[in-house]
Every structure is written in structure tokens, then in C-alpha cells.
Amino acid sequence: MKNILLLGGYGFLGTNILKYLDECCGNTFRVIVFDKFAQHPADLLFDCVTKTYVGDFSDDVLINRLFDDNPIDFVIHAISTTVPTSSFNARYDIESNLIPTINLINSMLQHGVKDIVYLSSGGAIYGNTSIVRHQEEENVFPISSYGVVKLAIEKYLMQYSELYGLRPLVVRLSNPYGPYHYSMKQGVCNVAMSFALSGNSFNVWGDGKAEKDYIYVCDFTEILFKLIDKKIHSQVINIGSGQIATVNDILERIKKMVPEFHWYYSDASRYDVSHFELDTSKLLSIIGDFHFTNLIDGLEKTYAWQLSALEAGQNPQSS
Amino acid sequence: MKNILLLGGYGFLGTNILKYLDECCGNTFRVIVFDKFAQHPADLLFDCVTKTYVGDFSDDVLINRLFDDNPIDFVIHAISTTVPTSSFNARYDIESNLIPTINLINSMLQHGVKDIVYLSSGGAIYGNTSIVRHQEEENVFPISSYGVVKLAIEKYLMQYSELYGLRPLVVRLSNPYGPYHYSMKQGVCNVAMSFALSGNSFNVWGDGKAEKDYIYVCDFTEILFKLIDKKIHSQVINIGSGQIATVNDILERIKKMVPEFHWYYSDASRYDVSHFELDTSKLLSIIGDFHFTNLIDGLEKTYAWQLSALEAGQNPQSS
């Protein structure tokens, strides 16, 4: 039995991690959730969750108390207080993401907790370069404040590893989509699907031709726990599916499910990248062959979830 | 006539910039100094300085007022509130260096000031890799909090360039030494020389065999204004001399000037790099051939300054 502290447990990735633990891990893990919500926003319950702490990630006294009050074996850090378009308030990004992460690491070390998984972002970190497939060791050019802060956190984690024996696993994720997604702020697959189901017209930033890697979130959670199981640490690892598509491809696919869906185009976001693909050789050399859900199947499963959530009155994409 | 805001004007690099402007630039530049000291710590006066503001770099109201009250053409940012061994207080580093720099950039943009020179550090940024000669475009592995913060500042500057038309010139400097150095915290050439002159034994961290690039500070100031003159911006540029030496080489050379000088060795600093050399092809392609002061001449000139400063009662290395 391992005790996990899951920061951001009721967000999109956090919820999927909890679902994965409930469905696939028996009683191997007990989870303490830290989140800005006292309970899951769609009132979901999880067998693995033993306690939920509600608060602000900047509250370093509370974060420290989590470690005082609970035995914790490892931390999964899935909090981000901002989204990739956050460059207009770099200071807020630093104060609400970077500094609290430093405090978190210090609390961990004070309590002898060495293992932390940090969910970083491929798109935000690598930026817009001429490189087609991004490798973990290349130089990076983040194009948003969100990306600079994630890079700084990655660098600090590796430094604490070198200096204080922290064991950080940094995963740079491509674009996850799938069930338990309740945000309208990012994640084009889910957000567009939500527009389609509500009968609203969807605004595409740019021409919809940007090519990106999309990963079904259940593939991500499975891979994540393979890496945790193999005790991989002090490394940065890309997690992508190799399923490259344009936004237009995705919209067309949604239209097959919701024929009345329509969309329009406006100016390209200055924060977006035009082509984004992750080199996953490092990942595959660790976990071996992995059968990724193809995009069509993944979108259909997501659609099925979104319908069932609507029927259950969960109002996906409400926050 | 150009108006410069020089942040950290009374530090080692700042003072040398002021001396260079007084001696080599006629009346081309007028300088407003911002520093934590109300006047130069050795009571030096500079013709080019029209006003000195004293304060804390974190005081964003004061920083903003500098731009309200003065016409400023460009900013030279030579402030660092910490030294490379600052990893024990990452939060302080972020709060006292990174956030104030973000506020500075915002104040600049609000006042239509686009040009900023940022003095970064080669040693702190590149870190300890197997690479022998570091190029500006390679991936970097800072080994101190000081380095992570400098990297984050560099990335933000380039992002503000892309998004808001800021024109940042980032220079990654090797190890400068020379006159007007009053700190005991870093700079092995000057600090060791000060120990030699005071008759104290000098503590070498490590075995003294680490090879590094040392640059005479007057070469640096001359190069800096060549880059400014050529209006180079939105680039990162290494500034090194190609004068590679070990700490032991430097100590032996000082012993030639002060025969009674002695030193001893203690544990290697965990923050230091074992070999450090900058690839300066980019720099030289911009400024053309440059006659760098060789290390022996540079150390002799530094020694002459240190003696004259002692005679004048300036007590070098007192802070």
C-alpha cells in the first residue's frame, strides 16, 4: 500500500488518475487529494481517496501540514493555476505556480519524501521551432509565461535531485483529451465536442491546420503508472501517442457524430505552435511497445462519456 | 545624447561600465544609476551619472517612478541580489530577482522603452555538461537557483521580444575580473588577490584544477558598447576571452606578485563546473577581431589597481 499526495486531484488529469487507480490498481494506492475544490466538481467519488484537503496552492502552511499529518510515499503534482495563454500576467504565474512548487519541494524534503511526478507540457516547453519531432534533450523556446514557469520548475526539480537526492519524474505530455474533462479553457477535442452538443458555433483560433499530437487520457494514466512502477526518476520523458491531427481533422470527426455542428475561424493565437510532435523513443525504450488508442476511437469514447455525463446532469465543460 | 538607466550601477560590472563611459564615450551617454547604495561604496564619482536612485529592486513603485520621472533610452540590467551559491533559498532568488525583472519589463513597456541589456552568466546558465565549448543555442543545465532564475529571465525577455517588441540583448559573460571589484563573495582573481595583499591564507574550494574562461572587465565593457552601438537585440550572445586558466594558474601568478601569498584546499563546491569555455564565434562575427587582454597582463593591471585603491584607503573587497 502506497500513499500518494495528488495535487490538483479534481482537475482533468487528476480525475483520470483517480479513476485509473480505482479501476486498475485494486487497493495498491491510497490517495490524499489537494485541490481548490472540497469535492469533485461533478460530485464523483473515488474509492482510493482517503482525504481531501481544499485550499490554495500558495498556502505553504497548509501544504506543509499535509506532510505533518499524513504518511506520504510520493507526490503527483498536477496543479497549474494558469493555462498556456497566461503571458499577460507573468508575475501571477510565477507567484501562483513556481514559488508554491519550491515550497512544496522544501516541505517534501523536510519530511523525507523524495519522489515526485511533475506533469509538464510538451507544447508549452518546446515552443515554436523548426524542429519537427521534439526530443527531451534539445534546447527549448517556451512561447508563454506558462511554459517558462514549467521550464523553471523542471530545472529546479533536476537541481534538487542533484543537490538533495529528490527523485523527480518529469513528464512532458502532448495534448490529452478524453473523459472527465470539465474545463472550457483548453483542450480543443473536449471543448469543441461540448460546443457541438450544446448547439453552439465553435470559434477556431487560426486556420485549424496546426498539426499536433493528441493522446487519449486513459493511455496517459496507464503509461504514467508504468513509469512509476519502474521507479523512473531524475529524468524528463515525453509522453505522446504519435496520433498527429489538425484541429480541422478533429472538427470533421466530431461533425460525423453531431452532424449539425458548425464552426468558424478567427485570428491565429499568438501562443500556438504550428506543428508539434514528440519524439517518444525514450518513453518506448522504458515501457516497451504500447498500443495507443487511435484518435477516432478516442474521440468516440470521449463522445460517449460526454453524452452520459450530460444525461447524468454532470454538465461537462461547465467550469 | 542617450539616456541610460543602469541597474546595479555601483556593483563591479556597473562601476566598470560607468568608468568606460567617462573615459571613452565623451558626452554621448547620461546615466541614471539605480542601486542599493546611495553613492558608490568607495565614494567614486562619475561624470556621466546625472542622478542616483537608491532602493530595493523589489520596490516596483520606485522602479516605475524612474520611468515616470526620467527620459530613458535604454536599460542596462546588472542587478543580481544573489550569487551562484544561492540554491539554498530558491524562493528568495525568485522573489528578489525574477519577479522584479518582470515588473521592470512591464514598466519599460508602459513607458515605451524597448531596449534592455541583460547581463547573464555563462557559467551559471550552461551548467556542468560534457560539452567543452558552450554555444548559445545548446540546451542548458543550470546547477544553481541563481542559474535557473537567470535562464527564466532570458526566456521571458525573448518572449516579450516576440509578443511586445521588446529589444533585449542578453550577454552570457564568462568570469570577469579587474578593477573596481569590492566584493568578497565571488570572483576568484580579485578575492584571492585581496587575501594575498592582506596576508591572509586563501581557501580554494576543490583542487583548483577547474579550467575556466577569465575576461578582463575592461574588455567586457568595450565589447558591450560595441554590441550596443551595432543595435544588436533579441539575441543571446556569449562574451568570453578565450583565456582559459585554472584557479591554481591564477594563484601561482598572484604569488609571483606577492611572494608570501599562500593558500589551502577544501572540499569542492557542489555548485562549481569543472571545465567551462564559451564559444564566441557569434560574438566575433558581430564585432570582428578583438584583441583580448591576456590573463597575465590583466592580473598585473588588477594588482596595480588593488594597490592604488588600498593606498587611497578604498579598502577593496570590503563588502
Question: How would you describe what is shown here?
Answer:
The structure is a homodimer of 319-residue chains. Chain A is α/β, with parallel strands linked by helices and 319 residues long. Chain A folds into two domains: 198 residues, Rossmann fold (3-Layer(aba) Sandwich), CATH 3.40.50; 94 residues, UDP-galactose 4-epimerase, domain 1, CATH 3.90.25. The first copy, chain A, contains ten helices and 14 strands. In chain A, the strands form three sheets. In chain A, strands 3-2-1-4-5-7-11 form a seven-stranded parallel beta sheet, with helices on both faces. In chain A, strand 1, helix 1 and strand 2 form a beta-alpha-beta unit. In chain A, helix 2 runs parallel beside helix 3 and helix 6 runs parallel beside helix 8. The model of chain A has no long low-confidence stretch (mean pLDDT 92). At the A-B interface, helix 3 and helix 5 of A face helix 3 and helix 5 of B.
Largest interface: A-B, 29 and 29 residues
Percent helix range of chain A: 40-55%
The first-to-last residue Cα distance of chain A is: 34 Å
Strand content of chain A: 15-25%
Q: What's the level 1 CATH class of the largest domain in chain A?
A: Alpha Beta
